[in-house]
From TrEMBL:
Pfam families in UniProt: PGM_PMM_I, PGM_PMM_II, PGM_PMM_III, PGM_PMM_IV
Name of the molecule in the record: Phosphomannomutase/phosphoglucomutase
Domain Alpha-D-phosphohexomutase C-terminal: from-to ranges: 383-461
Listed cofactors: Mg(2+)
InterPro entries found in the cross-reference section: A-D-PHexomutase_a/b/a-I, A-D-PHexomutase_a/b/a-I/II/III, A-D-PHexomutase_a/b/a-II, A-D-PHexomutase_a/b/a-III, A-D-PHexomutase_C, A-D-PHexomutase_C_sf, Alpha-D-phosphohexomutase_SF
UniProt key word Transferase: no
Gene Ontology molecular function terms on file: intramolecular phosphotransferase activity; metal ion binding
CDD domains found in the cross-reference section: PMM_PGM
GO biological process entries: carbohydrate metabolic process
Family per similarity comment: Belongs to the phosphohexose mutase family.
Keywords, alphabetical: Isomerase, Magnesium, Metal-binding, Phosphoprotein
Length: 465
């Protein structure tokens, strides 16, 4: 079990790292750690074959320790955050997100969709579960109950209340759900499946059938190979754009009318502008927007130009949730297509980000490729992983090579920013180690493609020795 407990969630191979017995112990441990005895906890799950049984096992452990389980059944991760926020209850979501079919996992939330990381309760849940596995789960005097509840319609209505799409121009959208939970949530939010009024959107569905074996491609749109079907379909259907969701549908990737992938930093900048304008119109003046350190430099530039304060964070789901709460930020964006909203309890919601893009795009006449180009003025490498056994030695090579021509900052790895004259193109890069593997992750940005490519190739040669 210990190997399955990661920095921000639980994830491992079904039948090895995760079994019914382990999951039941985690359910009991979760209730004790968050003090949920006598109150409700939300339990939801994705479409993986193992998820319903795991959700049931978790409920057994949770009720034994006195919690009342609100079982919301099949849902996306952001739908579980909605239930946690709306009910002000802790939540457990069974999913392994974009991982292959052999995996499953749990994403935990405290009441109000607040995140839980290794440092803020997950390690304690792990240790308590280990004790329960060793000595058995002792039921409390008044065990809890299990109640089934469908929150999909309420979730869809809430998102519709945050972004008005009724007045956008008619749009044709191809949506690739990757056989994941977007196949359930997209028809509810963007269509009429939850009983809401129709929108001026024509949805062309791709792989909407819920299937945890992922028969068409992995539900990980961050990998370019998994966007190919969507890109082809957008062009074939003459669509205005395409959307791709990961397995648990909390991340959304956007494709333009030509099949080109829209950089998540561009999406972050678009949404940031909209959210800043919205709260400024409501009278707010001290406005914070969060971005992690490897989003494009254009994101903080956009935030500042809008009169808000950009707040830079390290990479990481729970870290950004914590900073959202600390700063009262209206929005937060990550390079990995996680987008966080104050009006969504500070949690991330890919569907809500997609709705903002649709609202912005649908309110003007230019094609999406033109809109995206305005928000992607610089060249980004994307994340490049290298297997490195001696990471300190790689850092030393980088520092020696760039001393005198760059500034260094140790903040979530090593960030190196070129010292350039006013007429020279800017550049920066970040190298940071993986939490779980002997990998160094490189991200590079430059003022133009040639600058970025030159720095990228030089740094990769230093990393790989």
């Amino acid at each position: 079990m210990n190997a399955a407990v990661k920095a921000y969630d639980v994830r491992g191979i079904v039948g090895e790292a995760l079994t019914d017995e382990i999951v039941e112990a985690l359910g009991a441990a979760f209730v004790d750690e968050v003090g949920a005895a006598g109150g409700p906890i939300v339990v939801g799950h994705d479409m993986r074959d193992s998820s319903p049984a795991f959700a049931a096992a978790f409920a057994r452990g949770a009720t034994a320790r006195g919690a009342d389980v609100v079982a919301i059944g099949l849902c996306s991760t952001d739908e579980s955050y909605f239930a946690s926020g709306a009910l002000d209850a802790p939540a457990a979501m069974f999913t392994a997100s974009h991982n292959p079919a052999a995996y499953n996992g749990i994403k935990f939330s405290r009441a109000g969709a607040r995140g839980i990381s290794l440092d803020t309760g997950l390690a304690a849940i792990r240790d308590r579960a280990g004790d329960f596995l060793e000595s058995g789960i002792v039921p409390v005097a008044e065990p809890g109950s299990v109640e089934s509840r469908d929150v999909l319609a309420d979730y869809a209505a809430y998102l519709r209340s945050l972004v008005d799409l009724t007045a956008v121009r008619p749009l044709k959208i191809v949506v690739d759900a990757g056989n994941g939970m977007g196949g359930l949530t997209v028809p509810a939010v963007l269509g009429e499946a939850a009983g809401l009024a129709g929108l001026p959107l024509e949805i062309v569905p791709l792989y909407f059938e819920l299937d945890g074996t992922f028969p068409n491609h992995e539900a990980n749109p961050l990998e370019p190979a998994n966007l190919v079907d969507l890109q082809r379909a957008v062009v074939e259907h003459g669509a205005d754009l395409g959307l791709a969701f990961d397995g648990d549908a909390d991340r959304c990737f956007v494709v333009d009318e030509q099949g080109g992938a829209v950089n998540p930093s561009a999406v972050a900048a678009i949404v940031a502008l909209r959210e800043v304008a919205r709260v400024r119109a409501a009278g707010e003046t001290d406005i914070n927007v969060i971005h992690n350190l490897i989003t494009s430099q254009f994101v903080p530039e956009t935030i500042s130009a809008a009169g808000a304060t950009p707040v830079r964070t390290r990479v990481g789901h729970s870290l950004i949730k914590d900073r959202m709460a600390e700063t009262g930020a209206v929005f937060g964006g990550e390079h990995s297509a996680h987008y966080y909203f104050r009006d969504f309890w500070g949690a991330d919601n890919g569907m809500l980000a997609a709705m903002h893009v649709l609202a912005e795009f649908g309110s003007q006449d230019a094609p999406l490729s033109a809109l995206a180009a305005r928000f992607t003025p610089y060249a980004l490498s994307g994340e490049i992983n290298s297997t490195v056994e001696d990471i300190p030695a790689a850092y030393t090579r980088i520092v020696e090579a760039y001393t005198g021509t760059a500034e260094f900052e140790e903040f979530d790895g090593l960030t190196v920013r070129g010292v350039t004259a006013a007429d020279e193109p800017f550049w920066w890069f970040n190298v940071r180690p993986s939490n779980t593997e002997p990998l160094l992750r490189l991200n590079v940005e430059g003022a133009d493609e040639a600058t970025m490519a030159g720095i990228r190739d030089d740094v990769l040669a230093l990393i790989r020795g």
